[in-house]
Amino acid sequence: MIIVKSPEEIGRMRKSGLIAAEVRDRVVKRVAPGITTKELDEYAAEIIAASGARSAFLGYKGSRSVCPYPGNICLSINDEVVHGIPAKRRVEVGDIVSIDVGVQFEGYFGDTATTVMVGVSDFDVIRLVAVTEEALKAGIEKARAGNRLYDISHAIESVAVKAGFSVVRDFVGHGVGKALHEDPQVPNFGQAGRGVTLRTGMTLALEPMINMGGAAVEVMGDGWTVRTVDRKPSAHFEHTVAVQDGAAEILT
Fold first, then answer.
1. Backbone angles phi, psi at 241, to 5 degrees
2. Cα-flanking dihedrals φ and ψ of residue 162, to 5°?
3. Which among 119, 133, 217, 233 is least surrounded, fewest beta carbons within 10 Å?
4. Which residues contact 46 (CB under 8 A, 6 or more apart)?
5. How far apart are CA 72 and CA 56, in angstroms?
6. How far apart are CA 194 and CA 149, in angstroms?
7. Does 30 fall in a domain?
8. pLDDT (tens digit per residue) in 27-54
9. b/e map 12-39, b = 16+ CB within 10 Å
């Protein structure tokens, strides 16, 4: 069931969204060669705690996982698509780092992600990151009342495919609100004009995951980390948005 939010509920989601965005942006500034993903995670935990929120990911039990997620945020490097677990791995020059942040504040969730380039000189990698962010913007543009859900999906896919990249099909965007994952699922691929009709007050986490190589991914033995099968790089961007009659409101 898709839950349409009232203006008051969207107001509460703005608060959680702003916290998630602050955590994301402050962690981005800490990303540098030599820092470990565990250190970035611990810094995020400090910001989340100081805001009075809690991590949406820490202790989360996924349907495909063997144990609850052990980190405060997800940090995925290079061919890691999503759900990378913070550890002693150090960021190196040439890496791209996906920073995925989810928080709960006053009963509502905010979910957001970005991909950071660390001294990247490979033009194809730079283009992958830029195209993935462009795909997110294209999807947000279609998140308007009266459009169909797969208008969003088609817009994201079109940007990625036109650039010669692949869209991950095993993981998708989703509704968000009082739960981190609500209906509907929002694929990053699909035929325009299909899916439910979007209504004012729907809140969605749009998150294109775009691969340089093939679309195939696999979950590692830790039960969480998702990597490309061909081990080519992947980029990830995400915003929580509220559907409106005109342009969607970006809450993160």
1. -130, 155
2. -60, -35
3. 119
4. none
5. 8
6. 7
7. yes
8. 999 999 999 999 999 999 999 999 999 9
9. bbbbbbbbbbbbbeebeeebeeebebbe
Mind listing the pLDDT tens digit for each residue in 60-89? 997 666 799 999 999 999 999 999 999 999
Q: Is residue 198 part of a domain?
A: yes
The residue to which tokens 């739960």 are assigned: 179
Q: What letter would DSSP give residue 2?
A: B
What is the phi/psi pair of residue 30, to 5°? Answer: -90, -15
Does residue 138 belong to any structural domain of this protein?
Answer: yes
Give the range of the structural domain holding residue 61, as residue numbers without chain letter.
7-250
Q: Which domain CATH number covers 177?
A: 3.90.230.10
Q: What DSSP line would sit under 107-158, residue for residue?
A: TEEEEEEEEEESS---HHHHHHHHHHHHHHHHHHHT-BTTSBHHHHHHHHHH
Q: Does the pLDDT of residue 25 top 80, yes or no?
A: yes
pLDDT in tens, 81-113: 999 999 999 999 999 999 999 999 999 999 999
Cβ neighbours of residue 152 closer than 8 Å, sequence gap 6 or more: 139, 142, 143, 186, 204, 206
Question: To the nearest whole number, what is the mean pLDDT of the chain?
Answer: 97
Distance CA 64, CA 22 (A): 29
Beta bridge partners of 75: 99
Length of the chain: 252
Q: Is the pTM of this model over 0.70?
A: yes
The domain tally of the chain equals 1
Paired tokens of 23? 């955590």
In a domain, 2, yes or no: no
